[in-house]
Amino acid sequence: MANKYEMFSVLVTEVEQATPLIKRFTLAREDGAPMPAFTGGSHVIVQMQGADGSQFSNAYSLMSDPRDTRSYQIGVRLEEQSKGGSAFMHQQVQVGSRLTLSSPNNLFALDPSAGRHVLIAGGIGITPFLAQLHELEGGASDYELHYAFRAPEHGAFQQQLESGPHAANTRFYIDSLERKLDLTALCAGLAEDAHLYVCGPKPLIDAVIATAAKAGIAEQRVHWEQFAAAPVTGAAFTVVLARSGTELQVEEGMTILQAIEKSKAAKVECLCREGVCGTCETAILEGEAEHFDQYLSDDEKAAQQSMMLCVSRARSARLVLDL
Predict the structure, then answer these.
(1) Contact 250, 256 (CB under 8 A)
(2) How far is CA 34 from CA 8, 9, 60, 72, in A?
(3) Class of domain 116-225
(4) Structure confidence by residue, pLDDT tens digits, 35-63
(5) Does 199 show up as a binding residue in the annotation?
(6) Structure confidence at residue 139 as a pLDDT band (50, 70, 90)
(7) CATH architecture classification, 237-321
(8) Could you give phi then psi for residue 229, rounded to 5 degrees?
(9) 136 and 117 in contact (C-beta within 8 Å)?
(10) Do residues 29 and 8 lie in contact, with contact meaning Cβ atoms separated by under 8 Å?
């Protein structure tokens, strides 16, 4: 079931401090060969290894022009509750550093059936839209970008957007200046063939989904992406590994993957630990999952045939997995 990625080594060729909390990294192959092709909305898994043997693995959206595969660019925000990856990128990675990347995957592509694309970004959530704007440039599709951030100094890549070809299609919303994004008004005025896309903090994503639903916008017209581990709240439950018969208790605050790794009862590959790469997908033999991943489609989640062990939990008191 695991989704197999090509992994390859890259050099960091440029590092730019875009805001006090966001850095832009330019990555290229050492031999000068082109990077794998990608489309706007794609992400890569970045694997980092410290001199002390520490290892981190995070998903980041590609923000550069898909037409130029000489290099990739990613934007990384230094997270307050960092699992280590964003802190490593900010504190340890510099020009000349080597990183390992996965081939790109896209769970957030522009829908070709949309008559208008309405892009809503919050903070670092601007990054996938920067690649998509390259695809929209000069095309037949109508589009608009709404970009919200906390204060002027946190508007990553604002100058690039204001001075580029998308300036007339872009609106900025700055909390500290009381310039707020009115989602109700935005959703109320949408044409029936318009699609909404949102990337950013969870409260923004939740608000867009809820406001769109209240406005009668069909679910299939609302697209979202967030790279963050799902909350591991909820009651403890039992996981049975069918091949060995091992029973594990997954406590509140722990993921199934962590419980398996702690017990060493089975080996599970997982690149992202954020529910986006698909490598830890595992078949469900008994019980039902509470899905928190972004990898499976709604139909696949409803089918209860498999789950992502890094973020999803049990809806039932007991889960039996094909491990």
Answers:
(1) yes
(2) 12, 12, 19, 10
(3) alpha beta
(4) 999 999 999 999 998 888 888 999 999 99
(5) no
(6) confident
(7) Roll (3.10)
(8) -60, 135
(9) yes
(10) yes
Q: What does pTM read for this prediction? A: 0.91
How far apart are the C-alpha atoms of 25 and 200, rounded to whole Å? 19
272 assigned ligand-binding residue:
yes
CA distance 1 to 270: 12
Q: How large is the average pLDDT for residues 198-202?
A: 95
The pLDDT of residue 5 is 83
- The pLDDT, as a whole number, for residue 2 is 44
Q: What is the secondary structure of 194-226 as a DSSP string?
A: EEEEEES-HHHHHHHHHHHHHTT--GGGEEEE-
Domain boundaries, the chain: 7-106, 116-225, 237-321
CATH architecture of 7-106: Beta Barrel (2.40)
**Does 280 belong to an annotated binding site?**
yes
HSE-up of 297 (CA within 13 Å, CB side)? 4
What DSSP letter does each residue of 225-272 carry, written as one string? E--SPPP--S--EEEEETTTTEEEEE-TT--HHHHHHHHT-S----S-
Q: Is 270 annotated as a binding residue?
A: no
